[in-house]
Specification:
about 700 residues, alpha+beta, Pdz3 Domain, 2-enoyl-CoA Hydratase, Chain A, domain 1, 22 helices, about 45% helix, globular, disordered N terminus
């Protein structure tokens, strides 16, 4: 949402856009579409970005490197001599952004096309010969540890090793299947030939995509995003088609599995899961999982290598009630086949909901909020702040003695609603501070006196709790209002973005939309700060009580991105901490001892560290060693999966009015049952219940004095 401080410089961007457009048009030849976008984006970044880097030679070098990495992430196409010859453009991109002739893009793409054609001419011959999986070879699969090859011979050997690794993975799978069969149907040599034929097919598909589906416009979009992401990870260029597709997915209904996808380093990855969707309900998919194959019911699965996200989505979506099978490579390195039944993606299941936990000291209210949603298009549209208030009133009517708010995997959303929600638990006062590019801080306050709920409160978070979730957790922590429980830190996104049309200036004079739409820029405009003064950027929120989880050693938080804005702090806002009847320090001490002494959490911590070691970026091409490594990974992954599920389920039930809500809708009723089932076996929720019981006991004693 825009505020009074944001509006003036948004208008300044628009006016600057008009000026730049007409200034450029007045000089010689009219600018091309690409040049218009490039110059307008550069102007918006310089004039509007919260903390713009200087668009100079150093910035140009960063963009050059990033664009090359986007085209060739595995360093298998370009030779080092190509990079050397292109270095003449390394310091010219900043000049092109400012209006110099746009030449670097064509120069890079010309060599890229030549090198990919050389690969297309070579891979068939490399796959025509049998692979020897008995020799000891390795493939380094870390782009930061490999360099561009210095000769065609070295480059061809890299191609051979990559193709061999793809064949090895499939060969090991076929051998395992063959061994399970009552009698072997094919010899090892026949299986080896079969996998080479499969790799050939997927290589053909990749070649087809690079030749015919990866358009010049696609590559230009990559180029612009190399520029925007060099400012910070969340400033993004959306071409018109992508923006329209994004809007349709956010607002429409479709039949699928409820997972949004992204392409990264040549892989199709899960970017997010829609709460209540088949993907979410399965409990077997996570953000960051790589989809390697997609199968329709009993049909032969299609290998996703070489597919772009648009093609992958088409294959995964289908008719309601039909089965789709995803083969995924988990973030821990293990491989799993997940069977899902397509369903209508019902966005209402992203809304706040609650349940009653009846374990220990007293009745506990559980409130789940998957995102800070807000439907501003309709007067009576759903708003998370209002919905949370309704759920709390329902829980109070059930006489709960404590409330757990679950913000795990909540990526954020409406700033207005997080302020409203925080105000339900504290009296009036500041909730968050927001600073603009001029350095002016604004304190955003809860202005409503009074508290809806004043009892014991716990906030659950994890690595994927971001933005608005971090604002809420930080406010509750700073006010000493609640205990925050979860992994070592939240995601660490402390920045604010807005979508601004690239051609907004021309749109004011003529019209919005149409064939000459240039797209949108999601631009970072502001930064969040806690009421205590520290930013949530990079550091996120450190829980009061840390519970080890299975993703601790994997690098995907904000701090792991080299282009992320840095942490800093401003002056503390004036606020009055909560007068607490609970000694948080005592509970933190006792719970730390409990978690450290827990065999379950100690084992999760140990196994997670071992998995991180096994998932080294140097992979073996020796069959026996590969099989041994995969066996270890599968064993550890299975053990962790068992550890995070309770053997003795927690007692959780719906409130009476919620039990009857979906009586006439069997689909929603089943989804509700699945939700409860997952909660009952959730080891992290169970541990949080133990914490809440300690809080309730203290609170009850203190109130009776």
């Amino acid at each position: 949402m825009f505020n009074k401080r944001t509006l003036p410089f948004i208008l300044a961007i628009i006016v600057a856009g008009i000026f730049i457009t007409f200034q450029t048009i007045g000089l010689g030849n009219p600018p091309t579409k690409y040049e218009k976008i490039l110059r307008q984006v550069g102007e918006m970044l310089e004039k509007g970005h919260y903390q713009p880097k200087k668009i100079d030679d150093a910035f140009s070098k960063e963009v050059f490197k990033k664009y090359i990495e986007t085209l060739d992430p595995e360093k298998q196409f370009f030779l080092q001599s190509d990079i050397n010859s292109l270095k003449q453009y390394e310091t010219r991109i900043d000049d092109e952004i400012k209006g110099a002739p746009f030449q670097s893009f064509d120069a890079i793409n010309k060599i890229y096309l030549k090198r990919t054609e050389e690969y297309f001419a070579a891979y068939k011959d490399l796959l025509a010969k049998p692979f020897d999986f008995t020799i000891n070879e390795t493939l380094i699969d870390d782009k930061d540890k490999i360099q561009f090859t210095t000769s065609e011979k070295e480059r061809e050997d890299r191609w051979r090793k990559r193709l061999k690794y793809q064949a090895l993975v499939r060969y090991a799978d076929l051998l395992a299947t063959n061994e399970k069969a009552k009698e072997k149907t094919k010899s090892d040599a026949e299986l080896e030939k079969e996998v080479r034929e499969k790799v050939l097919k997927l290589s053909d598909r990749l070649a087809e995509r690079l030749k015919n589906k990866l358009t010049e416009e696609d590559k230009f979009n990559y180029f612009v995003n190399a520029i925007t992401s060099s400012m910070d990870p969340h400033t993004t260029f959306f071409p018109p088609l992508e923006k329209r597709s994004f809007d349709e997915q956010m607002s429409g209904r479709f039949y699928g599995i409820g997972a949004s996808l992204r392409q990264e380093d040549g892989n199709i990855k899960i970017a997010s899961l829609v709460t209540g969707s088949p993907a979410w309900k399965s409990g077997q998919l996570q953000i960051g999982d790589i989809i390697t194959k997609v199968g329709q019911a009993s049909d032969e699965p299609q290998d996703m290598a070489g597919y772009d996200t648009e093609d992958a989505v088409k294959i995964i979506r289908g008719k309601k009630g039909t089965e789709v099978k995803l083969t995924v490579r988990k973030t821990d390195g293990s491989t799993k086949v997940v069977s899902l039944i397509r369903d209508e993606i019902v966005l209402e299941e992203t809304f706040a909901r609650s349940a009653i936990i009846d374990e220990g000291a007293g009745k506990i209210g559980y409130l789940f909020l998957p995102e800070f949603y807000a439907d501003w298009e309709r007067p009576n549209g759903a708003k998370s702040g209002e919905d949370v208030a309704k759920e709390i009133k329902k829980l109070k009517a059930e006489n709960v003695e404590g409330i757990i708010i679950d913000l795990r995997n909540n990526g954020g959303g409406s700033l207005y609603d997080v302020i409203q929600m925080a105000g339900l638990f504290i009296d009036e006062g500041p909730i968050v501070q927001v600073k603009d590019r001029q350095g002016n801080p604004t304190v955003l306050k809860d202005k409503d006196k009074g508290v809806l709920y004043d009892g014991p409160l716990v906030v659950m978070v994890n690595e994927f709790s971001a933005s608005a979730s971090e604002i809420f957790a930080a406010a509750m922590q700073d006010y000493d209002r609640a205990l925050v429980v979860g992994s070592t830190s939240t995601y660490g996104k402390g920045t604010v973005q807005r979508n601004i049309g690239i051609d907004a200036g021309r749109g004011l004079l003529t019209r919005q939309g149409g064939e000459d739409d240039l797209g949108f820029l999601k631009l970072t405009l502001q930064k969040f700060y806690r009421v205590s003064g520290g930013s949530t950027q990079q550091r996120g929120v450190t829980p009061d009580i840390v519970i080890p989880d299975q993703l601790e050693h994997f690098k995907f938080r904000e701090k792991d991105n080299p282009d992320a804005l840095k942490w800093d702090e401003i002056s503390q806002a004036k606020y009055t901490p909560w007068s607490n009847l609970i000694d948080f320090s005592e509970i933190k001490r006792s719970e730390a001892n409990r978690v450290n002494g827990s065999p379950v959490f100690s084992k999760i911590k140990e196994n997670t560290a071992l998995l991180a070691e096994l998932n080294d970026k140097e992979v073996t091409l020796n069959l026996k060693k590969y099989q041994e490594e995969q066996k270890k990974i599968r064993t550890l992954a299975k053990e962790i999966e068992g550890l995070i599920k309770l053997q003795n389920e927690t007692s959780i039930s719906l409130m009476t009015e919620d039990e009857t809500k979906f009586t006439d809708d069997e689909g929603k009723k089943d989804r509700q049952k699945t939700w409860l089932k997952n909660l009952r076996s959730d080891v992290y929720l169970n541990e949080t219940v133990n914490i809440m019981n300690s809080m309730i006991s203290q609170y009850t004693i203190a109130k009776s004095k």
